[in-house]
Specification:
CATH topology: TIM Barrel
Shape: globular
Helix content: 40-55%
Radius of gyration: 23 Å
Order of helices and strands: HEEEEHHEEEHEHHHEHEHHEHHEHEHHH
Number of domains: 1
CATH architecture: Alpha-Beta Barrel
Number of helices: 16
């Protein structure tokens, strides 16, 4: 034993080090030093895939995340909403990764970015990771809210390089295309100031959405929009091959589609310069996106007719995903307005249930209906960001229950509820 003298301090040091590692290891994992690596969501034919199993999405929209993460007094709302979503088993949140010009702008002018707002987006992504929620990040707005294509056109016009003052020149003006490609490059290669991960390498991001609800009224043939989609999606994939990509369509059928007469809500829907099948067939598009707003699309329909339309609308697009596109179809916005003259709160519950049932039946049959994202969830004190579709989910027990039940139904289809402790806890008391 006398020869072991030098060994004793070494053993003591190693024992102490092991104790410290075991004691602090959990903190290391929880606060970013060594969090288990998340997998990227991919697709196999008409299915989303995660960790080798199909993934069916039940989620929501909170477009306001980045804007509220800018300021100290409102930043907590992001974490509160993500925590609430996670407790309902929601897996994906769609939110804006753009704010062009105006208040709290991410892109102040072409190529000029506000680091304060970029750090807010960093926070949103880091918070989502903490709560186990993935993000569908939209890259520009067809509408004027948060800048949109109008702001890009104004920038080109102000700098004397714009070809036209038409909002649709966003799609064909070479200068504006360069503006947008520069924005895409900066965003995709952004290194998160909190996690240290470039956006293009972060699996917390479920997918990119090219543009929210694209329309090009000046070319109803659809050629202008299609050329832009092809060019921009190829550009994105040249920088980021890891993430899924979708267009951001409402789902209307174009002037050459036979479904324009049988499925579109009204004639105007085929004259918007977009076409669901043609746009979604673009080779760099990984999944199709569809919105569901019978309140906005019809003027005189009663509630029962709207429900019938919704089922027909969804089944038509799922059929397209199965037979034409061979891609997943994600219903990325849906809602029922509380401004309808015949509105009753119970109608919204039934409306949601109808939509959830269509997706659940599609999942059970391994068809292309890949999930839904409700528009929209908020928290208390956000009246200025609300609309006639907004919900504070914990103030509405029936909606919260419906959302959780749908999460669990979809988890059971793939067996995830048996393998993950979180799912077992969420679904243990659900029928």
């Amino acid at each position: 034993m006398g020869n072991n003298g030098p060994l004793i301090p070494i053993l003591g040091f190693l024992t102490c080090a092991a104790f410290i590692y075991l004691s602090l290891g959990d903190l290391w994992f929880r606060f970013g030093g060594g969090e288990p690596e998340l997998g990227f969501v991919s697709r196999n034919g008409t299915q989303f895939v995660l960790d080798g199993k199909p993934l069916y999405v039940n989620g929501w929209n909170s477009y306001w995340f980045m804007d509220h993460a800018v300021n100290d007094h409102s930043r907590h709302r992001v974490g509160a909403m993500l925590e609430a979503g996670s407790k309902m088993g929601l897996t994906v949140c769609r939110t804006w990764a753009f704010n062009d010009g105006g208040y709290n702008a991410l892109q102040i002018s072409p190529g000029r970015f506000d680091e304060r707002v970029f750090k807010a987006l960093d926070h949103v992504i880091a918070e989502a990771k903490t709560h186990g929620v993935r993000l569908l990040l939209s890259l520009v707005n067809n509408l004027q809210a948060y800048g949109g294509k109008t702001q890009y056109v104004n920038w080109a016009w102000q700098e004397g390089v714009g070809l036209s003052s038409s909002n649709d020149s966003f799609f064909f003006d070479p200068s504006i295309r360069r503006y947008f490609k520069n924005y895409l490059t900066v965003l995709l290669t952004r290194k998160n100031s909190i996690t240290g991960i470039e956006y293009r390498n972060d699996p917390t991001i479920f997918a990119w959405e090219l543009i929210n609800e694209p329309r090009c009224f000046t070319d109803i043939s659809g050629d202008t929009l299609q050329d832009w989609i092809n060019e921009m999606t190829a550009f994105i994939k040249s920088i980021d091959k890891k993430h899924l990509l979708t267009v951001g369509l409402e789902g209307f059928y174009g002037p050459k589609s036979p479904k324009r007469l049988t499925v579109n809500p009204e004639r105007w829907a085929s004259e918007l310069g977009s076409d669901f099948v043609r746009n979604s067939e673009s080779p760099n598009i990984d999944f199709a996106s569809v919105h569901i707003y019978p309140d906005h699309w019809f003027h005189d329909q009663g509630f029962e007719d709207k429900v019938k339309f919704v089922v027909k609308w969804m089944l038509s697009h799922i059929e397209d995903g199965d037979k034409e596109l061979k891609k997943p179809v994600l219903f990325t916005e849906f809602g029922l307005s509380n401004l309808n003259k015949d509105y009753e709160p119970s109608q919204r519950d039934r409306f949601y249930r109808t939509i959830f049932d269509v997706v659940y039946k599609s999942a059970k049959r391994t068809r292309s209906g890949a999930g839904t994202l409700v528009w929209q969830f908020l928290i208390q004190g956000m009246e200025g960001f609300n609309d006639d579709f907004g919900i504070v989910p914990w103030e509405k027990d029936s909606i919260q229950r419906l959302m959780t039940e749908q999460s669990c139904r979809l988890a059971r289809v793939t067996g995830r509820h048996l393998q993950d402790e979180k799912w077992r806890e969420i679904c243990s008391h659900r029928p």
